[in-house]
Design brief:
Blueprint (H helix, E strand, L loop, with lengths): L4 H19 L9 H5 L18 H12 L14 E5 L3 H12 L3 E5 L11 E3 L5 E3 L5 E2 L3 H10 L5 E3 L3 E5 L7 E5 L8 H9 L6 H7 L4 H6 L1 H6 L5 H7 L4 H16 L8 H13 L6 E4 L3 H15 L3 E3 L4 E6 L5 E6 L4 E2 L3 E4 L3 H7 L8 H4 L9 E8 L10 E2 L5 E6 H4 L10 E6 L17 H15 L24 E9 L24 E3 L12 H19 L12 H7 L14 H4 L8 H10 L7 H7 L1
Parallel strand pairs: 1-2, 1-14, 2-10, 7-16, 14-20
Antiparallel strand pairs: 3-4, 5-9, 6-9, 7-8, 11-12, 12-13, 15-18, 15-19, 16-17, 17-18
Length: about 625
């Protein structure tokens, strides 16, 4: 007999209300002893791949992918297009992948010597991998999950237990969890996970959280989009949500989603994520890639593209988009002097780089002027190797720290980085600029200052393990029990990461269709519902491929997204100039992340001086 959702909800509510006082008293220890003690001899344990296919979003992603081999497939040689794609990040690679599936001939021109863009990685002198960011794969990433299926690489994902793990601010060294019980469908599994946890919110606070989310479940995307003008904090206060929900949950969620504090983050971002997690039973289950991203993710995409006639060219930075008198593209001029002529052109560059490359003839068009309202958010990714094992969990941890977003002990969570004797923590340092809600522009600080601040936070997270190390003054209050010392570190700065999802920005994200004939826009910052993320990058590339493939068949153009009237009015008076172009070489110059020495820090100061402004100077500049 099948139980109705309403009956199931009533049963869950009755059970919870009758047992809360006894079984789930405030601050009762939950979970297993290994999680509470953080056993230093934790053994990596992966879980079976969850059913991520049984959702409407996955079915739509799968149908869209299939269309490139059916309804969007070229029917004859005259429809086959030579396509030049600028940028070899996930969006550019996804665009090329789906274009070859449709029978076209794409060539990806990547400025750097490595693919992946913001998921790129490289090896240091010791052979250790340095990653641009700590990247987690969610069950609610339908286009990414579909891509893994198409490339037959699902076995490269290491799925973890369906759980969210938070460090306890008031109980240093301990963790608490949201546990998703197998067999309980969405949205009840999410509600039950929150209600079962008694360390973070009181029962009354949990009840106050639910009513503001009901319109999201009833109205869907229209309600979510309408909240873009409000920050998370403003939304909470508008709907009477307790302030402690911000402290206990939303700060951690905001920094994990977009590296921004909740008083600066658009509520649309949080609601978009929650809508996926509340509607998909396995949406919040997380997986780690089993190794470095260039080899384990980008390489299979590259092989797929090249095996079907496409090309990937590294170390091929574009100097200029050269236009004809009528504003259409004549060719791409590479720094090498080579001219690239194609039937179609796709930009898969980050928004900050596109703004530097926009031809003078395009600069008075409202479509391109709206880019002024978008900019990349700074973030820092840290790798920290210790001389022994730290107490850890085989999962992603939300630090709930003022300086750190999320972290993971990669020696425990990832096969390629496994080490039975020493820990390697990968941490996201955020917020690290005024635009993100911070008081300090950490991008401008030295690696040593950043690591010292982080060591202070780790001393709080691991109070009985981090040693008092004179090299790091922030550890000076550590007791004699702490023995773990830092033996190596890498600081990866990304001055312009995913677009800053501050309130009111969503309406300026452009359609993939542009007003320039045969020029299409890709990227996670373009208009698509999964925001700035790996999923958004793949979907942005797929949507761009759809525009090109549809055009090649002679069909009507996909529409250009409506542009705000104040942008339309001001565009005509804009003083157009020759494009600045990209200054310098290396990852930072092209919108990626890197370990920065003095030379590159000086170049960054010249090219992007706002990264070195204090909060007051930033406010004045804005």
């Amino acid at each position: 007999m099948k139980t109705s959702p309403l009956a199931l909800a009533a049963a869950l509510t009755t059970t919870l209300l009758s047992s809360t006082v006894h079984a789930f008293a405030p601050h009762a220890r939950i979970g297993n002893a290994q999680l509470r003690s953080g056993s230093s001899r934790l053994v990596m344990k992966d879980y079976p791949k969850p059913n991520v296919e049984d959702t409407d979003n996955y079915r739509f992603a799968q149908s869209m992918s299939s269309s490139f081999q059916t309804t969007l497939k070229v029917q004859n040689e005259s429809q086959k297009k030579k396509v030049a794609i600028i940028g070899g990040g996930l969006s550019g690679l996804a665009c090329a992948k789906y274009l070859v599936d449709a029978g076209h001939i794409p060539t990806v021109y990547e400025a750097r010597d490595v693919l992946g863009g913001k998921v790129s990685a490289w090896q240091d002198a010791d052979g250790d991998w340095i990653e641009t960011g700590l990247h987690i794969f969610f069950g609610a990433y339908p286009n990414m999950m579909n891509l893994f299926d198409e490339l037959d690489i699902h076995d490269r994902l290491q799925w973890k237990i369906h759980q969210m793990i938070f460090a306890m601010q008031e109980l240093p060294g301990e963790f608490t969890t949201f546990d998703f019980i197998p067999g309980i469908p969405a949205p009840f599994n999410f509600g039950l996970a929150i209600l079962m946890n008694q360390k973070m919110l009181t029962f009354a606070e949990k009840l106050q959280t639910a009513p503001p989310l009901i319109p999201m479940l009833i109205e869907g995307q229209s309600f979510i989009d309408a909240q873009d003008e409000l920050s998370v904090t403003e939304f909470m206060r508008k709907y009477g949500m307790p302030e402690r929900i911000n402290e206990e949950v939303f700060i951690a969620m905001a920094k994990a989603l977009d590296f921004i504090d909740p008083d600066k983050l658009s509520m649309t971002v949080v609601l978009t994520a929650m809508n996926r997690f509340l509607n998909e039973s396995n949406g919040l289950q997380m997986a780690f890639l089993d190794g470095n991203q260039p080899d384990r993710l980008c390489e299979p995409m590259k092989q797929h593209i090249e095996s079907r006639g496409g090309k990937i060219i590294l170390n091929a930075p574009v100097r200029k988009i050269v236009t004809k008198d009528d504003g259409t593209i004549d060719h791409l001029l590479l720094r090498s002097g080579e001219k690239i002529v194609a039937d179609e052109y796709v930009s898969a560059m980050p928004v900050d780089i596109v703004k530097r490359m926009t031809p003078k003839q395009w600069q008075n068009m409202p479509y391109f002027r709206q880019f002024d309202e978008l900019e990349g958010i700074p973030v820092i990714n840290l790798h920290m190797w210790f001389d022994r094992k730290l107490k850890a969990v085989d999962h992603l941890c939300f630090s709930r720290s003022p300086l750190l977003s999320v972290y993971a002990d990669m020696s425990v969570t990832c096969k390629e980085y496994a080490d039975p004797d020493k820990s390697m923590l990968e941490l996201v340092f955020a917020p690290c600029s005024p635009i993100a809600g911070g008081n300090t522009n950490w991008i401008s600080k030295s690696d040593e200052e950043i690591i010292d601040a982080t060591m202070g936070e780790l001393a709080r997270l691991f109070p009985t393990e981090i040693a008092n190390d004179e090299r790091w003054p922030a550890t000076c209050n550590q007791g004699p029990k702490g023995q773990a010392k830092l033996i190596k570190y890498a600081v990866v700065k990304v001055p312009r990461s995913v677009y800053a999802a501050i309130p009111g920005r969503n309406k300026y994200r452009p359609s993939q269709t542009t007003p320039i004939p045969h020029f299409t826009m890709a990227g996670d910052w373009t208009s698509q519902k999964f925001l700035g993320s790996m999923e958004g990058a793949v979907l942005g590339g797929k949507l761009a491929a759809e525009v090109v493939a549809n055009r090649a068949l002679g069909n009507a153009e996909k529409p250009i997204k409506e542009i705000q009237q104040h942008i339309v009015k001001s565009a005509a008076s804009h003083v157009a100039k020759e494009p600045i172009g990209v200054l310098g070489d290396g990852a930072i110059a092209f919108g990626g992340g890197a370990q920065l020495g003095k030379k590159n820090m000086d170049l960054l100061k010249e090219a992007d001086p706002i990264q070195f402004a204090d909060a007051e100077q930033y406010a004045a500049a804005s």
